[in-house]
From TrEMBL:
Upper lineage: Eukaryota, Fungi, Fungi incertae sedis, Microsporidia, Nosematidae
Enzyme Commission number(s): 3.5.4.5
Catalysis performed (reactions): cytidine + H2O + H(+) = uridine + NH4(+); 2'-deoxycytidine + H2O + H(+) = 2'-deoxyuridine + NH4(+)
Organism: Vairimorpha ceranae
Keyword tags: Hydrolase, Metal-binding, Zinc
InterPro entries: APOBEC/CMP_deaminase_Zn-bd, CMP_dCMP_dom, Cyt/Deoxycyt_deaminase, Cyt_deam_tetra, Cytidine_deaminase-like
Domain CMP/dCMP-type deaminase per the UniProt entry, residue ranges: 15-148
CDD domains to which the protein is assigned, alphabetical: cytidine_deaminase (cd01283)
Protein name: Cytidine deaminase
Location of the active site: 69
Cofactor (UniProt): Zn(2+)
């Protein structure tokens, strides 16, 4: 988890980052989370610049639940896009940002170009909050990569 001291103002960055975060905010509203009540939205940008979105979908036995990040990646891969360059994750905790879980980190790493990293933007659901936290898949999952799996 992260504290708010590392916030970055979205106005200092490109409109494309803002668009990615806003798409994640919008899809978060569609989350199916009757058990945890913890709604998450995600948006991924592919190497071609297209954006794919996903939200978490829970199941009463939890194991088959789908995280928002993996839902967005599934949309991208289903459309023929297999290289992710950016990901925005939107969820709410009072004093923290929500990071992708371990399975989502590994899935993101799977679809990163071997020579590149994926930027991860963590944001709150409030569309009037222009701050977000920036990380990367190499920071969240150090020492892993396709080269390490061969």
């Amino acid at each position: 988890m992260s504290n708010f001291s590392n916030n970055i103002n979205v106005d200092k960055h490109t409109k494309s980052i803002s668009e990615l975060i806003n798409r994640a905010r919008q899809v978060r509203k569609n989350a199916y989370c009757p058990y945890s009540k913890f709604a998450v939205g995600a948006a991924v940008r592919t190497a071609s610049g297209e954006i794919f979105i996903g939200c978490n979908i829970e199941n009463s036995c939890f194991s088959p639940s789908i995280c928002a990040e993996r839902a967005a990646i599934s949309q991208a891969v289903s459309a023929g896009h297999k290289e992710i360059v950016e990901c925005a994750v939107v969820a709410y905790l009072p004093n923290e940002y929500v990071y992708p879980c371990g399975v989502c980190r590994q899935t993101l790493a799977e679809f990163a170009n071997a020579s590149k990293d994926i930027k991860i933007y963590l944001a709150k659901p409030d569309e009037y909050d222009d701050k977000f936290f920036v990380s990367s898949i190499s920071e969240l999952l150090p020492g892993i990569g396709k080269l390490n799996l061969n």
